[in-house]
Amino acid sequence: MPDRSFLDWPFFEQRHRDWADKLDAWCAQNLPVDHSDVDAACRDLVARLGEAGFLKPTALDTANPGPLDVRTLCLTRETLARHDGLADFAFAMQGLGTGAISLFGTPEQQQWLDRTRAGKAISAFALSEPRSGSDVANMDMTATRDGDDYVLSGEKTWISNGGIADLYTVFARTGEAPGAKGISAFLVPADTPGLEVAERLDVIAPHPLARLSFNDVRVPASALIGKPGEGFKIAMSVLDVFRSTVGAAALGFARRALDETLDRAGSRELFGAPLFDLQMVQGHIADMALDVDAAALLIYRAAWTKDMGAPRVTREAAMAKLFATDRAQQVIDKAVQIHGGDGVRRGHIVESLYREIRALRIYEGASDVQKVVIARQIK
Ligand code: COS
User: Fold this and answer.
1) Separation CA 335–CA 329 (nearest Å)
2) What is the residue with the minimal CA distance to atom 46 of ligand 1?
């Protein structure tokens, strides 16, 4: 039985507890899904999560505008990840892909949000490039003004939902200044001529992922999100909201690993007694529980701080993401060890957690970059 005591922490309001309970019950009925065709599974998950109302927190409610509720985003990712990593992915990308539109979009651009929140359109965030992943300001892709249009040329890679998205938030160099101050953000519908999937990327925990090429993709100037030259700050502001949610997904994976380990240690006999009775195993379990609680505290501190109106939570979000993803890796590794051979057997839940967690220490700012961000913030 998963530990739910953290829901009593003062970071949460009753509506958060009710939401977590409702979502957990839905997950128990509907997850996990079959992952053999990840495109089909993600389309289906977006549609079903949308129909059930669980995508609503991912973007601005145009009928009732207000800030994104980061605690709800984190609770949702944590809960979904505990049940099925692909469901967490489907939810998370609806938020990351539309974050710039929620925070900086025009009312016309924000009309997309009614569809993404209902699960009727899929979104993607196109920032990374073959030559610039961690070093965002070094991007090559250009957007050149041509009359009333911009023309986008270049490549994006590691784009989650690449190939199945209906809309992309794309960052490109518009050249107002060198480096970070010469980048702008654009809303590009997937059917815009010249936007092509150059390559589908297969990874150890498969999900829709692609390298995209933009061959003179022409969009109207109204596709610009925010002001010209503000793209870097827009990207960073979106990451400020969503980075702690990556930590929350890691926390969900870690909680599941701990639950599986407790079941295993209680039911498996070794040397005539339950595995749990071995002090060495108790030591591992204590470390796992400590990491889970410490990660949860950092994540919900970051989420609560943002929800209380802090303009930037760069430091808190970076700490939450760094700690939760790194420690979840350790927690899951211990779970594999305690499961013995079963832990590395393809199809076992602990084996899939071991594959699922790894990318979280890389995407949305690698662990190493989070350390740079934290050091600069506390200087
Ligand atoms: N919110 C708002 N503004 C921000 C910001 C944030 N979180 N972070 C930086 N900025 C602003 C800075 O204040 C600076 O503006 P001013 O000069 O007016 O003060 C500007 O943006 C440039 O910032 P900085 O000098 O820190 O830029 P760098 O190129 O040195 O940035 C890091 C380096 C590592 C912080 C950045 O490139 C980064 O976060 N990389 C990771 C990228 C990532 O997460 N990729 C994953 C993509 S999604 S899978």
Assistant:
1) 10
2) 364
Burial degree of 14 (CB within 10 A; 0-12, 13-18, 19+): exposed
Enter the DSSP assignment of 93.
Answer: H
Q: Which two tokens stand for residue 146?
A: 């041509």
User: Is 70 exceeded by the pLDDT of residue 113?
Assistant: yes
pTM of the model: 0.96
Query: In a 10 Å sphere around its CB, with 0-12 CB exposed, 13-18 middle and 19+ buried, how is residue 292 labelled?
Result: buried
Side chain identity, residue 47: A
Tell me, in angstroms, the distance from the centre of ligand 1 to residue 232's CA.
Answer: 7
As given in the structure block, the two tokens for residue 324 are 């939760």
Ligand 1 site, residue 137, Cβ cutoff 6 A: yes
Instruction: Decide whether any atom of ligand 1 lies within 6 Å of the 135 Cβ.
Output: yes
129 catalytic? Reply is no
Which residue lies with its CA nearest to atom 19 of ligand 1? 233
233 CA closest ligand 1 atom index: 3
Say if CB 195 and CB 151 are below 8 A apart: no
| Phi, then psi, of 144 in degrees rounded to 5 | -110, 130
Local confidence band at 91 (pLDDT 50, 70, 90 cut-offs): very high
Q: Count the alpha carbons within 13 Å of 187 in the hemisphere toward its beta carbon.
A: 27
Please calculate the CA angle 5-358-7 and round it to the nearest 5 degrees: 10
Which atom number of ligand 1 is nearest to the Cα of residue 179?
29
Would the CA dihedral through 21, 241, 109, 46 be positive or negative?
negative
Summarize the confidence of residues 92-99 as an average pLDDT.
98
Taking every pair of C-alpha atoms in the chain, what is the biggest distance, in angstroms? 80
Whether the predicted pLDDT of 141 surpasses 90? yes
Going along 249-337, which residue ranges are E strands?
Answer: 269-270, 273-274
Cβ atoms 245, 234 nearer than 8 A: no
First to last CA, the chain: 42
Overall average pLDDT of the 356-374 stretch? 97
Question: Which amino acid makes up residue 253?
Answer: F
Atom of ligand 1 nearest to the CA of 133: 45
